[in-house]
Amino acid sequence: MTKAYIIEEFDNIIEIGITLGFNWFRGHSNVFNELTPEIFRKHYLDKVYLSLSPEPESRIAGEFKRMAPSITNELPKYSNHLEWLFLMQHHGVPTRLLDWSENILIATFFAVNSDYDKDGEIWTFLPWKLNEYHGFYGLPILNRNKIVKFLSREIFHTNPQKLADEYELKEIPKVPVALQPLLKHKRMTAQQSCFTIHPKPIVGFTIPEIITDEDYLIRYIIPKDLKRSFAQKLSYLGISYRTIFPDLDGLAKTIVQQEKSCGWGQPPALKYKEYK
Length: 276
Description:
three-stranded antiparallel beta sheet; four-stranded mixed beta sheet; globular; alpha+beta; 14 helices; 276 residues
């Protein structure tokens, strides 16, 4: 289990964000202790579930691709598997993608705006460090990187080894890759979205097991007693449902949240060294 450190005040969030300026951030409303995409979490791996619904990843993705054209024409090409993954993730379908943000305030929002009876957590890592495992430093060019192509297409392929041979890979990829999507959706832009794309989890090859140096991967805990005050501070800084979900649902949630907040009058002005 990755060691974690307790956030004691909101200023800690600001300090982390400006210190780790090239990092990506992810917030959880609960302390999960892991970085696992939804499709690989317990529900979809349960033996009873799998006995009734084998290969849930390919089945769910296949159903989405089959039925989406009946709703909209604004879809990726059928063979652009990665763009389909982005689209599915955007609409809440469980995939092998894990959401991150380049902005710690957005990650903090997701950590503090629900489950007020439980501690939240923020993970942060340097994406380039993860990709070093694959032999390059930086972020991949999406339509050229063979590992990304493999991981996005594997869902729809029945023979991983044959697919790896097709892309001239020395082995079937075991480690996630950090990547930035084309920002085609308003939410992605608003949330400064980036992703890790994951193979089926293998012990020893998860992100916390690959990046063991705390300078490159670290976890922070936000105590439950601080969640509401942090959420209010974020709203003052322009981080709310309205801004990170730029649609009518986001606007409605922001208004409701504002109405639940109590106003205590204007605080005293903050005065610093006088300008002359």
